[in-house]
Amino acid sequence: VEETLDELRHTLITTCNRMDQEIEQLKQLAATVKSSIAKEEETAADLKLRVRIFSFGEYKADVQDKMLANLNQKVLEVYRSCIGENEANLGTLQMLAVIEKQLDDLLECLERIPPAKIEQAEKAKEKERRIRLREEKKRQQKLLQEERLQRALARAQADIKKKTGRRLVFRSHPPVKKEKQKQTQEQMDEEKQEQLYYFT
Description:
Oligomer: single chain
Radius of gyration: 46 Å
Helix content: over 70%
Number of domains: 3
Number of strands: 0
Order of helices and strands: HHHHH
Strand content: under 5%
Number of helices: 5
Structural class: mainly alpha
Mean pLDDT: 84
């Protein structure tokens, strides 16, 4: 009987734990769904606003057609660079869907690549970038040097202009007069006493 009770307790505890985990997962799922709903509602509101703008005639039909043609052209350029030629004559939305799928596949592949390889590739790219910058800097310096040489050559070949007439000289300032300091009565008395003392 005790063994059965222990088994029942153990089963009850594991069931409770499992249910708690499931409840937690469901709460997280509910939060994710709520955030997704909020995002979708924002997107829907934005789309409604755009539809209203278009329907009020703010954009004319030919302007809309031009915008759509430009968008299609840009998407086609991205499609060609990522996937290849649009041989199936896909529409803009279909091309975007294919591009998105390709991007997802690439991101999945990127997650499977070991971090060491990614780091190695990043280092190689950084090295290439530094070499390219160094070469660009050298090229710029060479161009600047050539420009300096051209200017120096042009100055050397230019006609020398001789100045005629007298050279202008600025007038010098008159000498500063030194003012004699007036002697005080005490200094004069002191000098007289010294003269009397030393010379008599």
